[in-house]
């Protein structure tokens, strides 16, 4: 670059921009973009308008700033309204969840009946949230009970920020075919949301646990242990979601675990179809029990 060209550029840069009013038709375009509420479109229109009309930059920036201030005030008011609504909610308000149902029936050369039902509910407050789960799975073959699994749990959570929380757990299980009429679990611990996105979530939690077991043989016992769990959800598209949940409880001589992988496909409104694969593990050294079972299901899910 020659010296004269360099001096010209320096002089051009030093020349002050003369303020000029924004042409009415251009202002109308900017105001239309702002009225749309699309932040990305507004930023693009503002950027190109300032580049084309540098003398009207102050006017364009003022329009943009007014929009940003209104949006911030609306967001603040909505958040205050949400918190006030949560603070005034009763214990039976703000619950959401789903019911899952499935059945299989075979007659003829074999007589087989299987039923599955599950209920999941969640309530989210300002600092506390609650999660309820209940499920029952019954199966008979040739008039003989081959599966009888019943369970229910309640998990309250106390939030400490957007990702960290403490939790408690009270859980009941029944599976006489494995060897217990009742298994009662109490646990405390901490959880952390390792991944938090609009369509992706991963929670990890763990802590000490205490179990009391009513054995079918009359040899009841209690023990301390440790519990860990994983909860993963990925919304692949507006109609398809992949989930993975797993829980492992380990004691000195016993242990149990369950892992479920599911694929949900939305049908219509609150109706979804779920394909799932479940793995269950039970170990009891004293009673020489070690079982690893798997179950594949197709069920109907109804959101509420």
For the CA atoms, what is the radius of gyration?
30 Å
Distance between the termini: 70 Å
Low-confidence stretches: 7-14
The general outline is elongated
* Portion in helices: 10-25%
Number of helices: 4
**Beta-strand residue percentage:** over 45%
What is the total tally of β strands?
12
SSE pattern, N- to C-terminal: HHHHEEEEEEEEEEEE
Question: Could you give a quick summary of the protein structure above?
Answer:
The protein is α+β, with helices and mostly antiparallel strands and 304 residues long. The chain has helices at residues 3-14, 24-36, 39-52, 57-88, and strands spanning 95-106, 112-124, 128-141, 144-160, 164-175, 180-196, 200-215, 221-237, 240-251, 254-268, 271-284, 289-303.
Outline the structure in words.
This protein is α+β, with helices and mostly antiparallel strands. Helices cover 23% and strands 57% of the residues. It has helices at 3-14, 24-36, 39-52, 57-88, and strands at residues 95-106, 112-124, 128-141, 144-160, 164-175, 180-196, 200-215, 221-237, 240-251, 254-268, 271-284, 289-303. The protein has a 12-stranded antiparallel β-barrel. Helix 2 runs antiparallel to helix 3, helix 2 packs parallel to helix 4 (57-88) and helix 3 packs antiparallel against helix 4. The longest helix is centred in the N-terminal third of the chain and has 32 residues, at 57-88. The protein is elongated.
């Amino acid at each position: 670059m020659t010296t004269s060209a360099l001096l010209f550029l320096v002089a051009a840069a030093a020349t002050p921009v003369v303020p000029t009013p924004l042409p009415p038709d251009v202002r109308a375009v900017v105001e239309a973009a702002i009225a749309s509420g699309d932040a990305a479109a507004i930023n693009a229109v503002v950027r190109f308008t300032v580049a084309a009309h540098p003398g009207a930059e102050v006017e364009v920036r003022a329009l943009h700033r007014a929009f940003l201030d209104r949006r911030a005030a609306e967001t603040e008011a909505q958040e205050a309204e949400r918190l006030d609504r949560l603070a005034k909610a009763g214990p039976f308000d703000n619950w959401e969840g789903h019911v899952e149902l499935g059945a299989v029936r075979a007659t003829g050369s074999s007589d087989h009946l299987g039923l599955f039902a599950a209920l999941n509910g969640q309530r989210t407050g300002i600092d506390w949230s609650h999660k309820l789960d209940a499920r029952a799975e019954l199966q008979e073959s040739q008039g003989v009970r081959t599966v009888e699994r019943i369970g229910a749990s309640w998990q309250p959570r106390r939030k400490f920020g957007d990702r960290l929380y403490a939790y408690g757990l009270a859980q009941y299980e029944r599976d006489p075919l494995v060897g217990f009429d009742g298994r009662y679990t109490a646990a405390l611990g901490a959880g952390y949301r390792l991944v938090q996105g609009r369509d992706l979530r991963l929670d990890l939690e763990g802590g000490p646990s205490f179990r009391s077991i009513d054995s079918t043989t009359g040899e009841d016992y209690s023990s301390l242990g440790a519990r860990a769990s994983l909860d993963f959800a990925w919304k692949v598209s507006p109609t398809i979601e992949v989930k993975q949940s797993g829980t492992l409880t380990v004691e000195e001589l016993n242990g149990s675990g369950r892992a479920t992988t599911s694929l949900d496909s939305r049908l219509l409104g609150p109706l979804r179809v779920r394909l799932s694969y479940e793995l269950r593990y039970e170990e009891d050294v004293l009673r020489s029990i070690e079982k690893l079972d798997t179950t594949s299901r197709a069920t109907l899910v109804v959101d509420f």
